[in-house]
TrEMBL record:
Name of the protein in question: carbamoyl-phosphate synthase (ammonia)
Alphabetized Pfam families for the sequence: CPSase_L_D1, CPSase_L_D2, CPSase_L_D3
Domain of life: Bacteria
Residues spanning the membrane: none
Reaction equation(s) it catalyzes: hydrogencarbonate + NH4(+) + 2 ATP = carbamoyl phosphate + 2 ADP + phosphate + 2 H(+)
Alphabetized GO MF terms: carbamoyl-phosphate synthase (glutamine-hydrolyzing) activity
Top-tier EC class: ligase
């Protein structure tokens, strides 16, 4: 069936601020869906309260509403569109792109009769399907009716029913609340004594106060299938995903692999049949769907765990893994198209009714932030705790696994062989039995210490095939120790690289050689990466989209694609042919984590768009599957690779760009600046030397002194004794922090020598080789910040923000008001003057963020960051000015600030509200300090300072300030 022409205007519901369990994968889906509908000439309105995402930018939607995600907000939008002749009347709502938040909101609006009252159709799903899948008892009964296996379970709406169910099923069991996200409120109960507390938590977490009490299939294997279905009842499987971790760990906290590695063909075919049957049974909708299964490793018995009638966390991963844009196609199916009427977005010659085929392996590893939640239980279970994830692509499992480890931003050079190994066998075995963020590394450590593979399998319940693969890496390391750099056989060196070993790992195993020496040696041997295209169809049809990953390949072959001769070398064929255009590389921000979230991806996307608009070929390097920057049609060329020096340098070797943009990708990209500088690779925008002055506290303070700008007294220490001496000189309370950190990592406020000694010893233990900065803490000061753009001649103040909370609470955890609401004219003038002075003194080309403390009308500079900040996207949305686009064009040297006419459109004030995920860590106190803890943010517009919400925030502003 062709497009439904009665739909001309669609409302997409977003997912709101980033929280654990619902991250930027839904902004990726929402952005894709919006662009897909706009291609069809449909007007797109978006409601979402998240200012940090590209989804709420004017490049994505025709009408963007940064409003709280409530039914009342939706009603306001529908009425506005009905009554304003300049706006299109909304015909339909698409709720399947905004995660659980959007689905729950859609159901609530339906119950209140909103859609019917405004003649709005729900597309992409139907409410009956949501109810069948989210209501645990309805889902269980439906599976029984259609002959799909499920775990033995009973529904409970009260303590009495819960206890009866537990008595009937027996322990261990699982509690799964209805209508929750990321496993919230769920968990395993191993013994009777723990049941009452777990049942109470589940009943309270469910918005309908309903839980499913279910038999626990601990140790079974877990799989996911991503499906699409059209209104003609055609269903295709986009991707099979296997969890490396067995049942018992939330899939968002599991390492996952695509395609499924250990599934027999018979079992896979049965799983496909059941998934299709399930999707057809839940309603008459067209769109995406995610199905989770569990398989008994003893006899291949399959049971269904759940089905989500929407794009899911895994949909983003599956889209990036296959090159098949699930959300984009799902949006087209929602407006009436059938699969065979839509073209494959990568080949452009086949239809979307063509299941992707993978000739490579994908590995996803979650990224956790337990270091930010002191006292949190780090053991993984049914409730998701990861804040982000990385994805890697390799030609075999171990290559992809090692690349994923390199992507994580936790200082690992691969899986082990990097000096970070554990040696305590008791600690290792405990970690295998009680999974946490480091279990993968502990498996390798156990094998290196000679623990038998079968003992590891029994402790972890991880399939033997995966363990054998990791064991092979241990054997390769042992063999490598027999050689030195000059006599490693070329074939063996090649095998190491094929298995994902980084140059720095090889240098570590050999000892007494550097990463650069290993790199030079393999170059001499002709061992360079071959770049392969992600083409959805294992090269059966030529791909038109430049989306690449790297590998090491033997068979030299010359192939011709569309008449283009593809270059080969002794070791494989490179499918990425550099053009002769002037090109820039944008370094991405890696995995989401606290302190570095989706706002940096927003900046990267605008950097790519600005580069393309000004005639550059824009090349993206990033490894985060959740984001819009890694959409294959956002950059001119996408390298889905770790933002890890070895990978970055080889892409630069191949592409030879005019420069690299490091300002937009947060600390991940910034950390590359020194390496780029050492290797004479041009950095676009502010130079490394000037960025380094801002990062180095001593140099920066010298600069402030020279400029006659006030700053808190400070000192630098390398041990606890020096720290105590400095603290007594600058005066307590003091702020203690390591140099070169992001998101306030390791920062604390201390008030005496004893606390200071503890803090310094811990910091230097966590970050060996670092120096500790000790600043006098300006107690009861106000914190403010400025963002600006400098082109070398002029400085434009993007915005000044005043924090509601006092200095001492990390700026990312503070509610902040734009423009300032209580600062005197003198303070504002000083902030602007200091911003301009510092921008010129650092010779900034592009963006600059400065944090200030204001006490007794005196403005002190706390720190300056010559890069994109967490706040620029917020200010861009509030003032309705594309600041990152302007800054990128200034960085690239294409424009000066005077070329732009900048008009701010804000009436009243905008408040940046931090959003926390403390409910995932009930044991962690909700106090705030200099180390950032928020996972996301929302924007709230107020007319004036009499707003009751603002007055409430102002009243409680100091309450949560802690150390």
């Amino acid at each position: 069936m062709p497009k439904d022409t009665s739909i001309s205007s669609v409302l997409i519901i977003g997912s709101g601020p980033i929280i654990i369990g619902q991250a930027c994968e839904f902004d990726y889906s929402g952005s894709q869906a919006a662009l897909s509908l706009k291609e069809e000439g449909i007007k797109v309105s978006i409601i979402n309260s998240n200012p940090a995402t590209i989804m709420t930018d004017k490049v994505i939607g025709d009408h963007v509403y940064l409003k709280p995600l409530t039914v009342d907000s939706i009603e306001e939008i529908l009425i506005e569109h009905k009554n304003n002749p300049e706006l299109p009347t909304i015909d339909a709502v698409l709720p399947t792109m905004g995660g659980q938040t959007a689905l729950n909101l859609c159901v609530e609006a339906e119950e209140r009769g909103l859609w019917k009252a405004h003649n709005v159709r729900i597309i992409g799903v139907d409410v009956a399907a949501i109810d069948k899948t989210e209501n645990r008892e309805s889902f269980r009964q439906l599976m029984v009716d259609i002959g799909v296996g499920v775990a033995h379970s009973k529904i409970a709406n009260s303590f009495l029913e819960g206890k009866e169910a537990a008595q009937e099923i027996g322990f261990p069991l699982v509690i799964r609340p209805s209508y929750t996200l990321g496993g919230s409120g769920g968990g395993f109960v191993h013994k009777k004594e723990d049941f009452d507390a777990a049942l109470k938590r589940g009943l309270e977490a469910s918005p309908t106060h309903e839980v499913l009490v279910e038999q626990a299939v601990l140790g079974w294997k877990e799989y996911e299938l991503e499906l699409l279905r059209d209104s003609n009842d055609n269903v295709i499987i986009i991707c099979s995903i296997e969890n490396f971790d067995p049942m018992g760990i939330h899939t968002g906290d599991s390492i996952t692999v695509a395609p499924a590695m250990t599934l027999s063909d018979r079992c896979y075919q049965e799983m496909r049949n059941q998934a299709i049957k399930m999707m057809r049974a839940i309603g008459n909708f067209a769109g995406g769907c995610n199905v989770q299964f569990s398989v008994n490793p003893a006899n291949d018995e399959i049971i269904a765990i759940e089905i989500n009638p929407r794009v899911s966390r895994s949909s983003a991963l599956a889209s990036k893994a296959t090159g098949y844009p699930i959300a984009k196609i799902a949006a087209k199916l929602a407006i009436g198209y059938n699969l065979d009427e839509i073209e494959n977005q990568i080949t452009k010659t086949t239809s979307a009714y063509f299941e992707p085929t993978l000739d490579y392996v994908i590995v996803k590893i979650p990224r956790w932030n337990f270091d930010k939640f002191k006292g949190a239980n780090p053991e993984l279970g049914l409730q998701m705790k990861a804040v982000g994830e990385v994805m890697s692509i390799g030609r075999n499992f171990t290559e992809a696994l090692q690349k994923a480890c390199q992507s994580l931003e936790i200082g690992r050079a691969g899986i082990g062989a990097d000096g970070r190994q554990k040696r305590n066998i008791e600690e290792i075995m405990h970690g295998l039995e009680h999974p946490s963020w480091n279990r993968l590394f502990l498996i390798k450590d156990a094998m290196s210490m000679g623990v038998p593979l079968e003992s590891i399998r029994k402790a972890t319940k991880i399939d033997k095939w995966f363990l054998v693969q990791i064991q092979e890496l241990v054997a390769l390391e042992t063999e490598l120790k027999r050689y030195n750099l000059s006599n490693i056989p070329r074939d063996f060196f090649f095998t190491l690289k094929q298995k994902g070993f980084s140059d720095i790992q090889i240098a570590y195993i050999l000892g007494n050689v550097t990463e650069d020496e290993v790199y030079q040696r393999r170059k001499e041997l002709g061992l360079t990466r071959a770049y392969k295209m992600v083409d959805t169809c294992a090269a059966e049809f030529p791909a038109q989209t430049p989306y690449f990953y790297s590998t090491f390949e033997e068979a030299p072959q010359q192939i011709t694609a569309n008449g283009v001769q593809v270059q080969g070398n002794n070791y494989g064929t490179n499918e990425s042919i550099p053009s002769d255009k002037k090109k820039v590389i944008v370094l991405g921000s890696g995995p989401n984590r606290i302190g570095q979230g989706i706002e940096f991806d927003y900046s990267c996307v605008h950097g790519l768009l600005a580069a393309k608009e000004t005639g550059f070929e824009a090349i993206m390097i990033n490894c985060n599957p959740e984001t819009v920057s890694t959409d294959f049609n956002m950059a001119d060329k996408l390298y889905f690779e770790p933002v890890f020096w070895e990978h970055v340098r080889e892409i630069i070797d191949l592409e030879k760009p005019v420069g690299v943009i490091v300002q937009l990708g947060g600390q991940t990209a910034l950390k590359m600046a020194e390496k780029l500088h050492e290797n004479n690779i041009p950095i676009i925008g502010t130079s490394f030397e000037n960025m380094d002055i801002a990062e180095d506290r001593g140099s920066f303070s010298d600069l402030l002194k020279e400029l006659d700008i006030p700053y808190p007294k400070y000192g630098v220490a390398e041990n606890a004794e020096e720290a105590i001496k400095v603290a007594n000189e600058v005066g307590y309370p003091v702020l203690v922090r390591p140099s070169y950190v992001l998101g306030g990592q390791g920062m604390s406020i201390v008030i005496n020598d004893e606390d200071l000694e503890k803090a310094v010893v811990k910091l230097l233990g966590d970050l060996p080789g670092n120096r500790v900065l000790i600043d006098h803490f300006l107690d009861r000061a106000e914190e403010t910040e400025s963002d600006s753009i400098c082109d070398g001649e002029d400085v434009h103040i993007i915005g000044l923000m005043e924090h509601i909370e006092p200095a001492g609470i990390h700026s990312g955890d503070s509610s902040a008001v734009l423009p300032p609401y209580s600062l005197s004219d003198k303070v504002i003038a000083d902030m602007e003057q200091y911003s301009k002075k510092i921008a010129k003194a650092l010779n900034v080309r592009g963006l600059l963020n400065i944090q200030f403390a204001v006490k007794d009308e005196k403005v002190y500079v706390i720190e300056a960051n010559p890069r994109a900040s967490r706040t620029v996207p917020f200010i861009a949305k509030a003032y309705d000015v594309p600041y990152i686009n302007i800054a990128a064009k200034v960085m690239l040297g294409v424009n000066k600030l005077k070329d732009f006419t900048i008009e701010r459109k804000l009436k009243g004030f905008a408040i940046k509200e931090p959003v926390f995920s403390f409910e995932k860590f009930p044991e962690v106190p909700k106090e705030l300090g200099p180390e950032m803890k928020s996972t996301g943010e929302a924007i709230l517009f107020i007319k004036d300072l009499e707003d009751p919400y603002f007055r409430h925030l102002n009243k409680v502003k100091s309450m949560y300030l802690s150390q």
